[in-house]
Amino acid sequence: MTAVVPPEPTTEALSPFETGPGTPAGKYLRSFWQPVRLSQDLLEGQTQPIAVMGEKFTLYRGVGGKPVVTQAGCAHRQTLLSVGHVEGDSIRCMFHGWKFGADGHCEEAPGQSPSLVERTRIRTYPAHEAYGVVFAYFGDGEPPRFPDIAGFSEKHGKDMMSALVLDCGTYRRNCNYYVNVENALDLAHVPYTHRISSDPTITEVGFSPDVAFVRDVTVERFDFGVRAIEVIDGDAPTVSTVMLPNAMHLIVGQRDGYLEQVAWRVPIDDESHLSFQISALHTDEEGKRRYYEYKARRSELVAKYPSTEVCAEQILRGEKTLLDFADHPDLVNMEDHVAQMGMQFITDRGKENLAQSDKAVIQLRRMFMSRLADFVAGAPTPAGDW
């Protein structure tokens, strides 16, 4: 009997936008470590629901400090474990008290037989905490080596660990994650999208006004992704790299030195995503002082407004303008949010008119789709320094 071998998938049959369970891009992203929460937002003994790529999970931190990621519901009646109680490094369902260890095995099931306790378990997922961020692995089999962020910065950046300021943050954006992935290589948008946040006569903090010019870019391809480098006289170009499938590395001028950032765009579902960023400010002692002074006032400034997403939606409805939020600490995010919300999925071929300034974006699309096709066909993920 002759075996029937299915044809290899073509890039035309694949999409980077849909990442739910079973989708090609969803499986691809699940084969990498993904950030799920800032460490500071997950207290000892706390449980939280999280949503990643169209699936729900439970996240908690045991009293020993270890973060644990489990399936969303209890093995008994599927009550959400995120409304349960942490006991030691285990979690107890609030419905009937079934208790599960950090490895997923049932430890107690009040009123049930020992044999049921022995055979019952919930699914857990590998978790790793680094640089103030909790990461999880949602793929099959053993997780890959965790990326060497410090080593990558030493080789491709300015050595983040030596910066006077090292911080982390997160935001939510109500558009497909891949729109924001591509945005990392679209350096031509900065002078226009970030016109207000790069103007020191309007805003207190933000990009250096030196970056607010459209310049040609040099595009480089690596095993791990695509890089765009501004063509500029001097030694301070903006450099942005996308590390497939959904991480980025950025070096860009600020008013107090240079921002170096590693970030991930993580789908919540196909219409919204979270960004997690580890940021270093390469500055002097005075710049460090100003950074922390502004950070101390940040909560007071943010409290003046609704969430960043709501502010952006007010702008998109014509009720507000970006100038109404000139003192908002997340103005840069808001500017990008407003620009990207109208793009959504970029699925209608022929509607875009890509041009010279989009050459890095074009290279990324080709590389992403090629790697996605290779992944679906069973090829191993290329080994690199990311």
Report on this model:
This is Rieske 2Fe-2S domain-containing protein. GO terms for molecular function: 2 iron, 2 sulfur cluster binding; metal ion binding; monooxygenase activity; oxidoreductase activity, acting on paired donors, with incorporation or reduction of molecular oxygen. It comes from Amycolatopsis pithecellobii. Residues 33-136 form the Rieske domain. Keywords: 2Fe-2S, Iron, Iron-sulfur, Metal-binding, Oxidoreductase. The protein has 386 residues and is an alpha+beta fold. The protein has two domains: 25-129, Rieske Iron-sulfur Protein (3-layer Sandwich); 148-376, Naphthalene 1,2-dioxygenase Alpha Subunit, Chain A, domain 1, CATH 3.90.380. Helices cover 23% and strands 26% of the residues. The protein has helices at residues 24-30, 114-119, 149-156, 177-183, 190-193, 285-302, 308-316, 331-341, 359-376, and strands spanning 34-38, 47-52, 55-61, 67-71, 85-87, 90-92, 99-100, 106-108, 124-125, 127-130, 133-136, 165-173, 217-222, 225-230, 239-243, 247-254, 257-269, 272-282. The strands form four sheets. Strands 12-18-17-16-15-14-13 form a seven-stranded antiparallel sheet. Strands 2-3-4-9 form a four-stranded antiparallel sheet, with no helix packed on it. α7 (308-316) crosses α8 (331-341). The chain is globular, with a radius of gyration of 22 Å. The two termini are 44 Å apart. The model has no long low-confidence stretch (mean pLDDT 92).
